[in-house]
Design brief:
With about 160 residues, the chain is of the alpha+beta class. The strands form two sheets. Strands 1, 2, 3, 6, 7, 8, 9 and 10 form an eight-stranded antiparallel sheet that branches. A hairpin with an 8-residue loop joins β7 and β8. The protein starts with 10 loop residues before the first helix and ends in a 7-residue tail after the last strand.
């Protein structure tokens, strides 16, 4: 389901919902060129300070965004308690029909809520779903990608990456 942004009356904005998003939504899944499905996840903890019990509320971002730097960028990093994942993933071509708040999360109480991006395999290769945190504010790229772009870093979550 697309977002709730109120688009303008310029040519790009008029093309976004039907033509650009329509083609991306029809062609990418049918051709199999987008390896991942992407979800915006609001994680609410049942106890303060991020207890182990939580519930997730998630919305799939459609059409499928372009996930870049996933291979080669995510690597293992030695930390005091073992190995953790590190790196930078870039999401591009996120529909401009979404508002910044819809793709970067609501203002949250950090003791009770997290906003994450979950990236999951879309074609049966059974790659592990991973959660990411947004590494900076998303920005609308109307020149190159005709969509939002954002940088993500691996998130440490209770169930692991």
């Amino acid at each position: 389901m697309p977002g709730s942004a109120v688009l303008g009356t310029n040519l790009v904005d008029e093309l976004i919902p039907d033509l650009v998003d329509g083609l991306r939504d029809d062609l990418h899944p049918e051709l199999g060129v987008r390896q991942f499905r992407v979800f915006a996840v609001t994680r609410t903890y049942t106890a303060e300070f991020g207890g182990d019990a939580f519930t997730d509320s998630e919305i799939e971002i459609t059409p499928q965004p372009l996930v870049m730097n996933y291979v080669g960028s995510i690597r293992h990093q030695l930390v005091p308690c073992g190995l953790d994942e590190a790196g930078l993933v870039v999401l591009k071509e996120i529909s401009l029909t979404y508002t910044e708040a819809e793709i970067s999360g609501p203002p949250a109480n950090p003791d009770l809520q997290d906003f994450l991006i979950r990236i999951q395999d879309a074609h049966g290769q059974l790659t592990k779903s991973r959660h990411f945190q947004i590494a900076g504010p998303p920005y609308p790229d109307r020149v190159t990608d005709m969509g939002w772009a954002m940088n993500l870093i691996p998130a440490s979550t209770p169930e692991g990456l």
